[in-house]
Amino acid sequence: MNLLQHMRYFVTVAQERHFGRAAERLHMAQPALSQQIRRLEAELGVALFVRTTRRVDLTVAGTAYLERARAILASVDEAARHARRTAAGAVGHLSIGCVGSVTYSLLPALSRRLSEELPGVDCAFRGEMLVSEQVEALRDGSIDLALLRPPVADGSLTTALLRRDRLVAAVPTRHRLAERSRVEVADLRDTDLIVHSADRRSTMFDVVQRLCRDAGFEPSIRHEVGETSTLITLVAGGLGVAVVPDPVSALALEGVVYRPLVQPATSVDLAVAYRDDRDEPHVHRALEVIRELIGR
């Protein structure tokens, strides 16, 4: 019989002050319980109880032992509960990196859902991350999950498609294209464009460049920026037009209108990425929540 089990027997007898009632609670025979308590006393080298024919009382040593025994058993029980919650993915720390369009359109709903579904998981978010930054952060472990725009050229990462977002044109309200109900890619010829930075290996920079070249012209890039909020702010200032995923339209600023980009119909993928060696339960629980919310 281990010491923890002896402690549990001792605490039960101390609570009942009677071997018979304690034995009933423990679903064991009274003589067997009495024998286990005597073994505990022998192991400790002290008397824990003063016994009479009607009841038992704690000795001074027993009173001192009871306080510590209760604390130890409570700690052991809490450790067991914590282990079960961890195995179920209910506790842990989670850091999620998000591209700009997710930061403004999905992050509020996602943070609420994770808080509701995984209240014991400490969630942190890093917004306005370019894909190259997210990949590096996944590699070094500074984020656990990434909501990004593929492709991702890293064999150590798993990428799962969540959905496809159509592209729209963010247009200054005084621009000629603002009067259109929709914008064709060819309409961007000779139009100043604001794009995400090529130096920081932005996925959207490659998308815009490919769209324009497929339409037969080179994009006229006026500004390159690192953050989606800055990009839309420059559009609002009348400095150019931007091609962005539709969720960015949640970032409503005075001076900007959003128009569907058509001919050809255009869209970009949104995916969740994580390292192949991440097998923590809370990471996979969070993945389930993300798929339910975004991939529905």
Account of the 3D structure:
There is one protein chain. This protein has 296 residues and is an alpha/beta fold. The protein has two domains: 3-87, Orthogonal Bundle (Arc Repressor Mutant, subunit A); 92-294, 3-Layer(aba) Sandwich (D-Maltodextrin-Binding Protein, domain 2), CATH 3.40.190.290. Helix content is 43%, strand content 24%. The chain has helices spanning 3-16, 19-26, 30-44, 60-87, 100-105, 107-117, 131-140, 203-214, 228-236, 281-294, and strands at 49-51, 56-58, 92-98, 121-126, 145-148, 157-172, 183-184, 192-196, 220-225, 242-245, 256-262, 267-275. Strands 3, 4, 5, 6, 7, 10, 11 and 12 form an eight-stranded mixed beta sheet that branches. α8 (203-214) links the parallel β8 (192-196) and β9 (220-225). The longest helix has 28 residues, at 60-87. The two termini are 53 Å apart.
- Low-pLDDT segments, ≥5 res: none
Quote the distance from N terminus to C terminus: 53 Å
Provide the CATH top-level class of the largest domain: Alpha Beta
| Residues in helices, as a percent range | 40-55%
Tally of structural domains: 2
Mean pLDDT score = 89
The total count of strands amounts to 12
Q: How is the biggest beta sheet arranged?
A: 8 strands, mixed
Order of helices and strands: HHHEEHEHHEHEEEEHEHEEEH
In terms of DSSP E residues, the strand content is 15-25%
CATH topology of the largest domain: D-Maltodextrin-Binding Protein, domain 2
CATH architecture of the largest domain: 3-Layer(aba) Sandwich
Keywords: DNA-binding, Transcription, Transcription regulation
Domain HTH lysR-type: 1-59
Family: Belongs to the LysR transcriptional regulatory family.
Protein name: LysR family transcriptional regulator
